Q: What sequence folds into this?
């Protein structure tokens, strides 16, 4: 079970990597670096979530700071 | 300035910079028309220039430099082009934050930076300004940031090295013109840098990902030509993820705060080892008089320390570059300028015994210090003994080099019995038989005419006002 889970993870990882291997934008003239592109997609969800939490937290603190004024 | 295409402007097929009759222009090539037009029509150009983040330009009706042009622009002139390997950590940090702020504004207008080179940032009146108008493209939907690698290499890695290891490591940007390679930065950074989330992710883990996928691009080139990020078969990089990435980078950059150490130079004036109050007042009065008489447009203060005499020239209306080898002194000076406590001089880190050479392709992409001159006036105050004695440069060589930098020169002669020279000679043999005022005059006579010679009262020093022959 553990082995098949690991294989699945590798398959997903490999597919992800394959899908990212080419220079992305039509106007790119610098090398974005395949490792850098793949890395962004890997951490992208966490970055999005982190920003969401931050914005949410700012709204809460903003709400209370407005009320206390 | 020689007319023609600017030497450093050749990498990007979207356009380039050229000069004609001494005027600087930027050509927008037809292939980039859609993106440039979107920049102008989306409100982004207005927002960026209103925020002081992008150099202003006007569209002009002049002939293209080469082939067909979509537009020809005349950008506002930047008085002095400086390079990231000449900046103090505070300047690089401000440039990084300006780049990220520009990217955030771009995202708000459906656009994105397609490069994040520190060389695209210049300082205008102490503010970091992006100078490459063609850096903005219509946001490629669903794709990660094409300039992420470049941003980390040009900004985050050197800033982390400066704040966690040593500010002198910013000079690495002169060796690695496309930014400090992340594996090198990761190897040089201390283990504790992994405890900073921003560095753990954007430098250490990012470097590992680069290493792991170093060979991927070559393998991919063999076949899947259209399997791009953002196509329906590939995982999408959402705009929220993009904004999260920029926000995370902003936090990481803000954390790289470097505090200048206690350096001997920073306290130079405070210690008053070399000047009495009378001598300092006399020197200031003389320099102010010379600057007032000459009314120079551009002044280079060579060996500026924290910029006391640079301010004097700036207050007289000159555009001043303050060159100093100690990053601590430059950082202190920069902070004073940014806080509005000093006039808007541009302090830069420069070892005058080894000034910035021409770098990059053909050694011409990034011009040397002297190629960016000559200045109308150079100040060489309390400098001569550092070059001639601390660095063993003969006075004839010093005079010949100074002649490449300026039309007018104010030079302070510091004799051998001055306390600062005695200090330099305290631990070494005096092999400087020619280091005397007659030797100086002989050396200068090949290049300059002496216009005035004035004693600095309260000291044994002398100020010379010299005109280049």
A:
């Amino acid at each position: 079970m553990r082995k098949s889970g690991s294989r699945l993870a590798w398959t997903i990882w490999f597919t992800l990597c394959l899908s990212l291997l080419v220079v992305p934008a039509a106007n790119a003239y610098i090398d974005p670096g395949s490792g850098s592109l793949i890395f962004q997609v890997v951490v992208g969800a966490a970055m999005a979530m982190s920003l969401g939490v931050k914005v949410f937290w700012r709204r809460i603190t903003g709400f209370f700071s407005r009320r206390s004024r | 300035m020689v007319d023609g295409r600017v030497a450093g402007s050749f990498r990007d097929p979207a356009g380039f910079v050229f000069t004609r009759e001494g005027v600087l222009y930027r050509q927008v090539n037809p292939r980039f028309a859609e993106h440039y037009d979107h920049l102008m029509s989306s409100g982004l150009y207005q927002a960026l220039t209103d925020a002081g983040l992008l150099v202003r330009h006007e569209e002009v009706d002049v002939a293209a430099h080469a082939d067909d042009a979509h537009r020809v622009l005349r950008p506002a002139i930047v008085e002095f082009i400086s390079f990231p390997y000449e900046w103090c950590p505070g300047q690089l940090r401000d440039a990084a934050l300006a780049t990220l702020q520009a990217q955030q504004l771009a995202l708000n207008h459906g656009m994105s930076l397609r490069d994040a080179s520190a060389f695209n940032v210049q300082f205008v009146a102490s503010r970091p300004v992006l100078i490459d108008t063609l850096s903005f493209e219509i946001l490629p939907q669903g794709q990660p940031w094409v300039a992420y690698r470049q941003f980390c290499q040009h900004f985050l890695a050197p800033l982390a090295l400066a704040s966690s290891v040593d500010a002198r490591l910013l000079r690495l940007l002169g060796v690695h013109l496309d930014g400090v390679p992340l594996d090198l930065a990761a190897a040089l950074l201390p283990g504790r840098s992994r405890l900073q989330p921003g560095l753990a992710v954007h430098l250490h883990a990012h470097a590992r990902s680069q290493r792991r996928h170093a060979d991927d691009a070559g393998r991919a080139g063999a076949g899947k030509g259209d399997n791009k990020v953002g196509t329906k078969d590939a995982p999408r990089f959402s705009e929220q993820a993009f904004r999260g990435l920029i926000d995370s980078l902003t936090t990481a950059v803000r954390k790289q705060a470097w505090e200048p150490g206690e350096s001997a130079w920073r306290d130079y004036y405070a210690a008053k080892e070399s000047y009495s109050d009378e001598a300092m007042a006399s020197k200031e009065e003389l320099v102010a008089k010379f600057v007032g008489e000459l009314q120079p447009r551009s002044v280079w203060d060579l060996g500026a320390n924290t910029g006391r005499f640079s301010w004097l020239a700036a207050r007289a209306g000159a555009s001043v570059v303050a060159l100093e080898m100690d990053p601590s002194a430059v950082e202190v000076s920069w902070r004073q300028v940014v806080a509005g406590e000093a006039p808007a001089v541009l302090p830069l880190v420069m070892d005058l015994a080894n000034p910035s050479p021409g770098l990059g392709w053909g050694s011409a992409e990034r011009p040397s210090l002297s190629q960016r001159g000559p200045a109308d006036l150079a100040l060489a105050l309390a400098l001569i003994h550092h070059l001639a004695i601390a660095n063993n440069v003969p006075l004839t060589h010093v005079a010949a080099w100074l002649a490449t930098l300026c039309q007018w020169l104010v030079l302070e002669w510091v004799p051998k019995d001055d306390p600062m020279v005695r200090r330099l000679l305290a631990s070494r043999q005096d092999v400087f038989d020619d280091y005397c005022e007659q030797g100086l005059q002989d050396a200068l006579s090949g290049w300059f005419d002496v216009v005035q010679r004035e004693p600095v009262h309260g000291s044994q020093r002398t100020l010379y006002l010299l005109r280049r022959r």
The longest helix of chain B spans residues 89-108. The first strand of chain B starts at residue 4 and ends at 5. Residues 268-468 of chain B form a domain with the Rossmann fold fold (CATH 3.40.50.150). Chain B touches chain A through 53 residues (CB under 8 Å).
